[in-house]
């Protein structure tokens, strides 16, 4: 019996995680805290939350594994601070609360090129949140670093749309790490890690997630 918590359930990768987890026989309960309600399902616990004020002592934190698919862009967030809040503050708060309540496995959706020493905001923040969650102390931590994520988003991102067209056309000619990473393959990797991740810290790089 495995209980999994997923944050970022309404995003591109998170939606795939929810859909696949609800049909996964290894998972008996899926907790998906969101700001707006999801479609009801007998296996789904969907508390409505404000990620700026997460409740610290509620029963739904009592899970075995956590999947973090939270993420945005600087353009979508509107400022450096707002971007960092979504990609660093929220994931770390979730990790700390879940760990305090007994979770032993954590699966983080990060990014190709994550580097805490980078001068660029996006890869630096991704690298910093990887290090911060590793420091929390989970028995099993899996960091998934996809390239450009393939799939249909609810929000329109012009840069990603243009890059998807180019990478889709050039895909067979590119090294695997630079090809599109389908959201469904990312979700599979995150679920497997949260359900049965081995002890220690593990990296799943973009080449293992590439389309084709």
Describe the fold and architecture.
With 212 residues, this protein is α/β, with parallel strands linked by helices. The protein has one domain (2-207): Rossmann fold. Helix content is 37%, strand content 17%. It has helices spanning 12-21, 74-77, 80-100, 121-136, 158-170, 183-196; strands at 2-7, 27-31, 44-45, 65-68, 105-109, 140-144, 149-150, 181-182, 200-204. Strands 3-2-1-4-5-6-9 form a seven-stranded parallel β-sheet, with helices on both faces. α5 links the parallel β7 (149-150) and β8 (181-182). The model has no long low-confidence stretch (mean pLDDT 90).
CATH top level is: Alpha Beta
Task: Tell me the name of the CATH homologous superfamily.
Answer: NAD(P)-binding Rossmann-like Domain
Please estimate the helix content: 25-40%
Low-confidence stretches: none
How many domain units?
Answer: 1
Number of helices: 6
User: Given the C-alpha coordinates, what overall shape results?
Assistant: globular
Structural class: alpha/beta
Task: For the largest sheet, list the strands in their spatial order.
Answer: 3-2-1-4-5-6-9
**What series of H and E elements makes up the topology?**
EHEEEHHEHEEHEHE
Biggest β-sheet strands, sense, barrel: 7 strands, parallel
Rounded radius of gyration (Å) = 16 Å
Examine the coordinates and then state which fold CATH places here, giving the name of the CATH topology: Rossmann fold
Q: Could you give the distance between the termini?
A: 34 Å
Secondary structure: number of strands: 9
Beta-strand portion reads 15-25%
Mean pLDDT rating: 90
